[in-house]
Amino acid sequence: MPVSTPFRRPPQNAADDPDSPEPTPPPSSSPSSALRARLAHWRAWRTRHPRAALVLRRTTTVLAAVLVLGALLLPNSFAALEPSRFARIPAEPVVAAVLLLQLPRVPRLVLAAFLGTGLGALTVLNLLDMGFTEYLGRGFNVVLDWGLLDDAQSYVADSMGGAAAFWASVGAVVLTVLLLVVMALAVVRLGELLVAHRERTNRGALMAATVWLACAALGVQTFGPAVATTSASRAVEAQANRVRDTLRDEAAFAKEAKSDRFGATPGAQLVPDLRGKDVIFTFIESYGRTAIEDPVTAPGVDRTLDTGTAALEKAGFRAKSGWLTSATYGGSSWLGHSTFMSGLWVDNQQRYRTVTAGDHLTLTKAFRKTGDWDTVGVMPGVQKGWPEAKWYGLDKVYDAFDVGYRGPKFSWSTMPDQYALEAFQRLEHGKKRDRPLMAEVVLTSSHQPWAPIPELVGWDGIGDGSVYDGIEAAGVEPSEVLTDSRRSKEEYGKSVQYSVTSLTQWLERYGTDDTVLVFLGDHQPIARVSGDKASRDVPVSVVAKDPKVLDAIDDWNWTEGLKPAHDAPVWRMSSFRDAFLTAYGSTPHPTG
Q1: H helices then E strands: how many in the chain?
Q2: 338 and 284 in a common domain
Q3: Handedness of CA 263, 269, 271, 275 (dihedral sign)
Q4: What InterPro entries has UniProt attached to this entry (predicted)?
Q5: Is the confidence at residue 7, as pLDDT, over 90?
Q6: pLDDT digit string (tens) for 402-435?
Q7: Mean pLDDT, to the nearest integer, of 40-47?
Q8: Does residue 36 lie in a domain region?
Q9: What ranges in 137-197 are assigned the alpha helix state H?
Q10: Residue 240 and residue 303 in one domain
Q11: By the 8 A CB rule, do 526 and 331 touch?
Q12: Are residues 81 and 223 in the same domain?
């Protein structure tokens, strides 16, 4: 009889089967559980590899200390970025160490993270200061300048391409976030380390404070800079003062803008001595004193000015030239334009917004107010809506898309100056008209990065601009110029020569007995070209055939010709409007 096998119920799941392996618990979805698991894994790794863990801890601590000290001692300009700047003793970490030692753990961690984040933010502001000082000759304004970062991205896109601008923006954002986070973690780590060695920290803080005080009292220096420093605190104070001054200036300037010496002057009493004249105000981008006086750029530019003066004299024109101190430097051309036209010192974005939102009389608006001139603007650099045209008093504005250009861009510049001037002749200046013309023309070929630069072509062969295709393709790449100061100076000088020659040839070719040309630079080029301590002076010239036009400004004591003498009078750019209106017979009727 067969032996019966006891009945065995098949297992319903692995847990019911004694022979099955012990199941692995499912991973927890809780963030705190995941964090605990990672910490446990880290502790286990440290236990298995104690020597490697020690090296890692010490390396991390050293890196944190270097990062924090470097941020505390970082200057806010490239000129001050020298090794000796980092061989100093900052007071801030000594004070921070004393504070952290007095607090319980949670408040201590909060304060350390706050201080680290603040130090990261200060580092970002110092880096922005470096960039703004290099390009605009001033520090970054946390109230006004955020909008300029978008302009900077557009400039990079026009100069280096859209991909470069995109990755530069991504890199800037990533760097900012990393600085804020990593700096906070670094200060927290150092704070915990100090507390873990409280007795030694107390002694070290006392010793550091004593050394700092002694160095401060004795004025000890390391190759120039003082050893004892509070540079981080002073940088914070400077940023706070900049914010305070900006807010105060806004109210003061709004009041100043309402006061106008010619604000209530009737149109019939404005510039009566220029009736019947075509008056053209022309800005040449970045045309500054450097172009005429720097040893690298001056020989070519001076030769161009001398040649232009002789050619214009042969055509019957005379010129007088002087200097104006621009309200801006290295960029933000619109600040120079509005300062020149309004007679107000417009040196920041808030002032610009304030003045363009009001009805302050501009030079261009003065001509329109008479009712005796047609007023137009030729703005090849404008590529989007430009509501300021109404404030300037321009009946018609030709932007980058209104002049029929079909050629290539030359880096940032949308078209060569010679084309813009020929289009102005075709569209406005060369037309038969019932009344004279007042025009504001902005030339852009001398805008950085000065590569590639257009070449002069025959005026009759300009056409729709397609003639420039081969010239642009054969030109220098911006990347070849941007990082080389000497090369930047050379190409800058060539670009100014091109712009000035284009303008003087246009006047020689198309100017009449009734043409009056006023041309000037809007600002100096960036510090890489003009130098760290360059002035903000720009040349200005008045050119005309009618001798009465230049006789009216004899008392200005300007230099004969297109090149102002080194010691020619220097005015603030904001003083030109009133001097010009007065010279040509305007009667003051103040407002405000």
Answers
A1: 21, 11
A2: yes
A3: positive
A4: Alkaline_phosphatase_core_sf (IPR017850)
A5: no
A6: 999 999 999 889 999 999 999 999 999 998 888 9
A7: 68
A8: no
A9: 146-160, 162-196
A10: no
A11: yes
A12: yes
Distance CA 466, CA 399 (A): 18
Q: Which amino acid is at 8?
A: R
Model pLDDT, residue 251:
79
The residue among 185, 210, 245 that closes a domain is: 245
> What distance in Å separates the CA atoms of residue 42 and residue 257, rounded to the nearest whole number?
65
Q: From CA 322, how far away is CA 571, in angstroms rounded?
A: 8
Q: What is the DSSP string of 505-523?
A: HHHHHH--TTEEEEEEESS
Q: Same domain for 232 and 308?
A: no
Element (H, E) at 282: strand 278-284
Counting the structural domains of the chain, the total is 2
Closest CA relative to residue 570, chosen from 579, 303, 561, 299: 579
Q: What is the pLDDT of residues 222-245, one digit of tens each?
A: 777 787 778 888 888 888 888 888
Domain holding 217, by residue range, is 44-245
Cβ-proximal residues to 579 (8 Å cutoff; 6+ apart), any chain: 556, 571
Q: In this structure, are 206 and 341 located in the same domain?
A: no
* C-alpha span between 43 and 94 (Å, rounded): 32
Of residues 526 and 55, which shows the higher confidence score? Answer: 526
Same domain, 101 and 63: yes
Nearest-angstrom CA–CA distance, 161 and 157: 4
- Nearest CA to 465 among 503, 416, 398, 411? 416
What's the rounded mean pLDDT across residues 96-119?
A: 87
Do residues 190 and 61 touch, judged by C-beta distance below 8 A?
yes
State in Å, rounded, how far the first CA of the chain is from the last one.
Answer: 127
- Taking CA atoms, 145 is separated from 151, 154, 340, in Å, by 10, 15, 22
- The answer to whether residue 9 is domain-embedded is no
CB atoms within 10 A of CB 499: 31
Phi, psi of 518, deg, nearest 5? -115, 115
Between 231-257 and 105-136, two packed helices, what is the crossing angle to 10 degrees?
60
Which of 344, 426, 443 minimizes the C-alpha distance to 391? 344
Question: What pLDDT sits at residue 464?
Answer: 93
Strand partners, 396: 376
233 and 290 co-located in one domain: no
What CATH code is carried by the domain that includes residue 383? 3.40.720.10
DSSP alpha helices (H): ranges in 258-348? 289-293, 298-314, 333-342
Question: Is residue 584 included in any domain, yes or no?
Answer: no
Query: Residue 398's pLDDT is what?
Result: 95
Residue 243 to residue 521: CA distance in whole angstroms? 30
The answer to the question of residue 299 being in a domain is: yes
d(CA 287, CA 301): 10
- Of 161-170, 176-185, 318-327, the one with minimum mean pLDDT is 161-170
- Record the pTM: 0.77
